[in-house]
TrEMBL record:
Keywords in alphabetical order: Arsenical resistance, Cell membrane, Membrane, Transmembrane, Transmembrane helix, Transport
Top-level taxon of the source organism: Bacteria
Protein name per Swiss-Prot or TrEMBL: Arsenical pump membrane protein
Organism: Microbacterium trichothecenolyticum
Positions of transmembrane segments: 34-53, 74-91, 156-179, 199-216, 222-241, 253-276, 288-310, 322-347, 359-382
Length: 383
């Protein structure tokens, strides 16, 4: 609700800027033309993930990973890391935060393991693994569009793949050193999750796993995502119509993102670019790339990663600088609770599951990880 209220205020400010001429109408049209495919993808992939979750897909996958680990906690830890990384890379960081968090928590509790270490895996990797593909993060979709090559996953991986690998590796190493030694070496078996409708589970599994490769073959991401959403909605309308509803659509995020695009467009028209250019500096050498990544992370932790990206995108200036900015605004916002929407959603899901986590603990962990990933994640971009 708070996100929708903020978004509503931003919409009002944007409309006022449009009516008063501060934001030219042609510029607003350009923004809308750029943004609608991205927001359509966000809606479609959210609907797919929500319906797959209602069918029990994530619960079944997590249970099978637990069986695959054969009661060895270290093996389960590695498999959960892999699941969080894949979910983030293909289905976006918000999907990992919202849908995977309660799954891994219930999986851990059922096996008498402390759920907090696994919960921290989901939130940290939801942010740091969001550098992998264009569809992993809304900022990536914006950046790949800004580069002019469309949402080409191969080009994106060529640019950010090494940085993503380093950032994920650093995150996993720190998480493992902090948490894994506190867990028992083995865990007891637990009952398999109950599946209310096997047909829905099978169809959801087929549709979701078929969607993953379709998101990385060069199509506009909204196309396969929308197709998958239509199929699942049709099947649920047949098998479980009560599961369908207006709440499947992430309205708060849409209102917030749309208002933010308008407001930032107005600020750019007023000359905010001069300030951001001064902060971000110039050049493609390592020091300059560290500067733009660091500024991106600071602004993201100060306000939020999406407005941080929008405010700094115009002064990135080159593919290397844009990639460094993504390292800062994607992987860097893990210090303050509000830096990433995924973090706030994660905390909300933990509270709903009855798991309490102190923000001081989150901040302390993020303060260790963030400088390391900024320092090391930018290095490949300067080579």
């Amino acid at each position: 609700m708070t996100l929708a209220i903020i978004g509503g205020v931003l919409w009002i400010l944007g409309i006022v800027a449009l009516l008063t001429g501060v934001l030219p109408a042609d510029h607003a049209i350009e923004v809308a033309d750029r943004v609608w495919p991205i927001l359509l993808f966000v809606v479609a992939v959210t609907v797919v993930a929500e319906l797959a979750s209602k069918a029990g897909l994530f619960d079944v996958v997590a249970a099978r990973l637990a069986r695959l680990a054969r009661r060895r906690t270290a093996a389960l830890w590695v498999l959960v890391v892999g699941l969080a990384t894949v979910a983030t890379a293909f289905l976006s960081l918000d999907t990992t935060a919202v849908l995977l968090t309660p799954v891994v928590v219930s999986m851990a509790v059922a096996r008498r393991l402390d759920p907090l270490p696994f919960a921290f895996v989901t939130v940290v990797l939801a942010n740091t693994a969001s550098l992998v593909l264009p569809v992993s993060n809304l900022t990536n979709l914006l950046a790949s569009e800004a580069l002019g090559g469309g949402h080409d996953p191969v080009a994106f991986l060529a640019m950010l793949g090494p940085s993503a690998l380093i950032v994920i590796a650093v995150s996993v190493v720190v998480l493992t050193l902090v948490f894994l030694r506190r867990l028992p070496r083995t865990y007891p078996d637990a009952a398999s999750p109950t599946v209310s409708d096997p047909v829905l589970l099978r169809v959801s599994g087929v549709v979701t796993f078929a969607l993953l490769p379709l998101l990385v073959i060069g199509l506009e991401p909204w196309m396969p995502a929308l197709g998958a959403a239509v199929v699942l909605v049709a099947v649920f309308a047949w098998r479980a119509p009560r599961a369908l509803g207006i709440r499947l659509v992430p309205w708060s995020l849409l209102v917030f993102a749309g208002g933010l695009f308008l407001a930032v467009g107005a600020l750019e028209a007023l000359g905010i670019g001069r300030i951001t250019a001064l902060l971000a500096g110039t050049g493609d050498d390592l020091r300059a790339l560290w500067q733009v990544a660091g500024v991106g992370a600071l602004v993201a932790n100060g306000i939020n990663n999406l407005p941080a990206y929008l405010a700094l995108e115009s002064v990135a200036g080159s593919p290397a600088r844009l990639a460094a900015l993504l390292v800062g605004v994607n992987a860097g916002p893990i210090v303050t609770p509000w830096a990433s929407l995924a973090t706030l959603l994660w905390h909300e899901r933990l509270r709903a599951a009855g798991v309490e986590v102190r923000w001081s603990r989150f901040i302390a962990l993020g303060a260790v990880i963030a400088p390391l990933i900024l320092l090391l994640g930018v290095l490949p971009l300067a080579l």
